[in-house]
């Protein structure tokens, strides 16, 4: 049974400006494992990675029905990738199946999360 669906879109120019200021935002948003992957990238790919992970967390919180805040924090949701590059999301808040999709276009990233019991 579907518990919730969340969608988010993000203009990647916002992330470019944030990255130019240093790593504090990335460290706040990304889990340690995500931050480790983030550091492996540079340039445009780093912007896409951080933007995608931020957007995934937003999509999850919308699917959960609360938004980011007291009920769900950035550290409660982690999106890594399997050996094929497919995003795999886990959460400390939800024990069911989590389906996630991340799509990048030159200027935008869009994510969708579906929670299934």
Automatic annotation (TrEMBL):
User: Required co-factor?
Assistant: Mg(2+)
Positions bound to Mg(2+): 8, 58
Q: Which GO terms describe its molecular function?
A: holo-[acyl-carrier-protein] synthase activity
| Keyword Cytoplasm listed | yes
The UniProt keyword set, sorted, is: Cytoplasm, Fatty acid biosynthesis, Fatty acid metabolism, Lipid biosynthesis, Lipid metabolism, Magnesium, Metal-binding, Transferase
Domain 4'-phosphopantetheinyl transferase: where?
Answer: 4-111
Which Pfam family, an example, fits this chain? ACPS
Coiled-coil parts of chain:
none
Q: Which InterPro entries would you find in this protein's record?
A: 4-PPantetheinyl_Trfase_dom, 4-PPantetheinyl_Trfase_dom_sf, ACPS, Ppantetheine-prot_Trfase_dom
- Known EC number(s)? 2.7.8.7
Q: Quote the function comment for this protein.
A: Transfers the 4'-phosphopantetheine moiety from coenzyme A to a Ser of acyl-carrier-protein.
Q: Record's family?
A: Belongs to the P-Pant transferase superfamily. AcpS family.
Name of the featured protein = Holo-[acyl-carrier-protein] synthase
Organism (species): Lactobacillus colini
């Amino acid at each position: 049974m579907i518990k919730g669906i969340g969608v988010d879109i993000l203009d990647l120019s916002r992330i470019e400006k944030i990255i130019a200021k240093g790593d504090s935002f990335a460290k706040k948003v990304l889990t340690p494992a995500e931050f480790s992957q983030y550091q492996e990238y540079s340039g445009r790919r780093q912007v896409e990675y951080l933007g995608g992970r931020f957007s995934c967390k937003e999509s999850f919180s919308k699917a959960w029905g609360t938004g980011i805040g007291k009920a769900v924090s950035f550290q409660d949701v982690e999106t890594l990738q399997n050996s094929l590059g497919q995003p795999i999301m886990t959460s400390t808040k939800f024990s069911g199946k989590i389906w996630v999709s991340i799509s990048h276009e030159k200027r935008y990233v869009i994510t969708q999360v579906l929670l299934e019991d």
